[in-house]
Amino acid sequence: MEEDYKLIAPDIDRLLRYFERGYLNPSAPSERIVSAMESLFRAFAPLAPLEKSQEVKVLWIAVPRGTIEDYDSFEDLKSYGEVETYEEYEALWHEDYPEPLAWYELIVSESFNRGGELFHRSISFGDRIIVNAVFDMGLAEHGGYSESAAVTLIGLLTTAAEDAIRKLENGTYYDELNALLPYRFKTGVIKRSALWEKDPEWKENAMDGLDDETINAFKELMASGANDADKIGRLETMTANDFFRACSIGYIACGYDCGDLPLVDQYDKYADGRDEGLTGRGYGLNEGPGIDFDNPAAWEQWYFDRSRGGGHPWEVIRGGNSTHVDLVVCNDRQSLDYKVRIGELTAEEAAKRPCGFCFAIAGKHRQREAVSFYVALSRAGLPVILRDADEILARFEGSDYVGIVPHSVIPKYCESMFPAKYGVVIDFMHVYDEEMELFGDEIEWLLITTSALR
Q1: Given this model, what pLDDT does residue 284 score?
Q2: DSSP character for 361?
Q3: Is the pTM here over 0.90, yes or no?
Q4: Terminus of the chain with fewer CB atoms < 10 Å: N or C?
Q5: Half-sphere exposure of 352 (CA within 13 A, CB side)
Q6: Is the Cβ–Cβ distance between 270 and 259 less than 8 Å?
């Protein structure tokens, strides 16, 4: 740590290498780190915490890349075998720092105990945790092998944060941020139809392998208004085999191999298996003797027994959090009783509502199976709706948006990142140089906001 580090990207990245250990457990800070943090948190004092948290403040920090003389030395990289010529050395520098500014997200948080005393402070920079300190443990004699790096880095970040806050105060911060932040850090949307126009393979992928006949049948059902829980009727009684038979209809429509298997064996082959004692084949919390598959009373006893739980009996096509298909058996009795109990409906009004069993399919990330199930069960005359049907239809018609998320974000479960004006965004992507060349003019980037001035 004898080097004189500057506020330039190569030096910042050299310091960040001290924090490659991944998650840093909360620990008592040293006196040097406490002092360094005090300066940084004082710099952040003009900012209000984020709305989602009463503790967290965020700024994007732009750091100059410096000159090639600030980069790792040519002689060192040559000795390591990473380059052979100076031209390769220059190319590597431009690859690591392609823009004049390198951008990092700086996050600070603090919390206090009930008595108002400081309890915790943390600092994250880029994708690294720099400090994760708790104060009820006293002070440590030394902050570990990275203490000097942390103190040096925090000092540089204090200067950078002060500069960013001055730009917030004079009104130039957001103009610079939204204009210059590289796309790999940004969130945006693109019309699906624009993806199709630029690259027809996107349209083929959106159809998810469904044939035209099934897609057209789905569109006709949607246009008819049939996907309405108040219009599909109800089954007065139901049995386990009725449920398994509905599953079988869907499996066959999806092209799954069912052969001559009994209904329950088809379900056992493709479903999640955590059936809450329905088949008698479960394990752990889902153990049970099973029920009489042809007895409506046995079904109702199992169905309305809310003492069991923890299972996935409706996950008829197993998968991950977003890659499974549910065939949920719904019944109005409990929901109507609840609405009467809270006064939302009178007993007379509830008596006029449809009551019985029906099906609801969910699987917006497995459109081929979900839509095939829905069309097949509808054709079989069963009362069924498809959840997220409007979003799936928009996907097939190319009228919805695909979300673009930062490279640090896994492109799943990102619905909450997009404003309501874009509808429900169900598909997400990263963009890279080749996509930017192809789609860049069609992307609408969301304005970036960070912590605001108090």
Answers
A1: 74
A2: E
A3: no
A4: C
A5: 4
A6: no
pLDDT, position 349: 81
Q: Which residues contact 393 (CB under 8 A, 6 or more apart)?
A: 218, 219, 222
| 3-class SS of residue 371 | helix
d(Cα 356, Cα 334) in Å, to the nearest integer? 10
Tens-digit pLDDT profile for residues 219-262: 999 999 999 988 898 999 999 999 999 999 999 999 999 999 99
Eight-class DSSP state of 432: -
- With 0-12 CB in 10 A as exposed, 13-18 as middle and 19+ as buried, what is 327? buried
Residue 328 predicted with pLDDT over 90 = yes
Any alpha helices (H) in 58-199, and if so which ranges? 74-79, 86-96, 147-170, 173-180, 192-198
Question: What integer pLDDT is reported at residue 308 of this predicted model?
Answer: 60
pLDDT higher than 90, residue 188: yes
- The percentage of residues in the chain with a pLDDT greater than 90, rounded to a whole number, is 76
Q: In the chain, what are the domain boundaries?
A: 9-65+100-181, 233-382
Beta strands in 340-383 (DSSP E): 357-362
CA dihedral 434, 438, 440, 444 (to 10 degrees): -120
CA atoms within 13 A on the CB side of 244: 21
Type of residue at 61: I
Structure tokens at 312: 């996935």
pLDDT, residue 2, reads 59
Q: What distance separates the 2 farthest-apart alpha carbons in the chain?
A: 87
Q: What pairs with residue 101 in β-bridges?
A: 64
